[in-house]
Amino acid sequence: MKWHKLIATALGSGYSPFAPGTAGSIVGIGILFITNWLINDLGFELPAVLFFNLALIVGMLFLGTYSIKKVHTIWEHDASKIVIDEVVGVWIAAIALPMRWEYYLAALLLFRFFDIAKPLFIRKIDAMKGHWSVMLDDVLAGIYTSIILQSFLIIKFL
Q1: What is the value of pTM for the model shown?
Q2: In this model, does residue 158 exceed pLDDT 80?
């Protein structure tokens, strides 16, 4: 159970007394930025970085959801300390962004907006009961964020 708590709380960031969802998102975006920076520094091209990011997201989607299922046996549904869903969501938000801290910050802020406001079907998913609903509302918030940021990059707004 210790490992599931560590995963569900995103290395303990979910225990933050102030804004645990934001703390988890910051940990997530920090991990992704540093990881992508290291991969780029090793000379890997964009396809390899995208493949790694997708593998990371899919792997943590399933591992995180399994850990959520396990901690739901001792914690209430979608307890505030469960923040692995924010990590996965912010990773989706930042996928395929150029390696500039400003873009990762924009992904973090826009993702938090969608995660808190819960527009466009996010609230409906969040209202469902079950370990998958905890993860999927943040996945959708990350998808919305990614679509907006990629659109801005395409039209050269960012």
Answers
A1: 0.93
A2: no
